[in-house]
Amino acid sequence: MKLLNTAAGNTKILKTQTGTNYRIASLSLYPNDTICPAAILAGCKAPCLVSAGRGAMNSVAQGRKNKTALFMESPATFITKLEHEIDNFISLCIKQGKKAAFRLNTISDIPWEKYGIPQNFPQALFYDYTKAAARLGKTPDNYGLMFSYSQTPKYQKQVARALETNAPIAVVFRGFVPVGNYFLGREIINGDKSDLVNLNQGQGKIIGLKLKGGKETQKSNSLFIVEPEQTTPALAIAAE
User: Who contacts 5 (Cβ-Cβ below 8 Å, separation ≥6)?
Assistant: First the structure.
């Protein structure tokens, strides 16, 4: 069982690495309350992207479940295998004259720094989205984090803590991303183009992401989803 996707099978991964000197490997697990502990608190469990895109295929979903089962049942074995695949991918990138980058939480929220993963590969770039504000600013220099926003009341302590940092804050908008408007006092940029841009140019900004998923997700009333009309136009900010 191979853990990493090294062929940019994820659409966002492909968009992110295109036109750059990076190749990006990603890890897609099947989320549960252990590897994505804040999903219920943030209200994103129902509209989760686990079933979006290739995740709707039974074979893909089962593959993710198998990986999650290995992580849950034998974490030491999982980490050893993951580090072996990371090392091989870095070697491949060097041969191709590319830089290696990794997104290990495509649909999970595991603090990989606690397992020593980014520390063991300082020559590579790691990045993820997280709902754990306490991690912001505390990861190794080669591990960048972006915070995932939600409007649920019980999640607001996390949001407040994230706003105390300069970390990019990702917000999911229904219908379209109101680029140039403001939310939470921060300017909104288009976050659907490139996670590397989000990471490097999104400091102190809102990373606007368009809601993905099927019909049920699009109709969801989850407070994880923000309506564009909840934002403030730039002209209104300038007039204050």
Answer: 13, 25, 26, 27, 28
Contact 129, 148 (CB under 8 A): yes
CA distance 74 to 191: 35
Q: Residues 25-36: pLDDT tens digits?
A: 999 998 887 787
DSSP conformational letter for 100: E
For residue 122, the tally of other CB atoms under 10 A from its CB is 11
Q: How far apart are CA 199 and CA 129, in angstroms?
A: 10
Strands 22-27 and 4-5: antiparallel
Domain region containing 83 = 4-239
pLDDT in tens, 104-125: 999 899 999 999 999 999 999 9
- Count: domains in the chain: 1
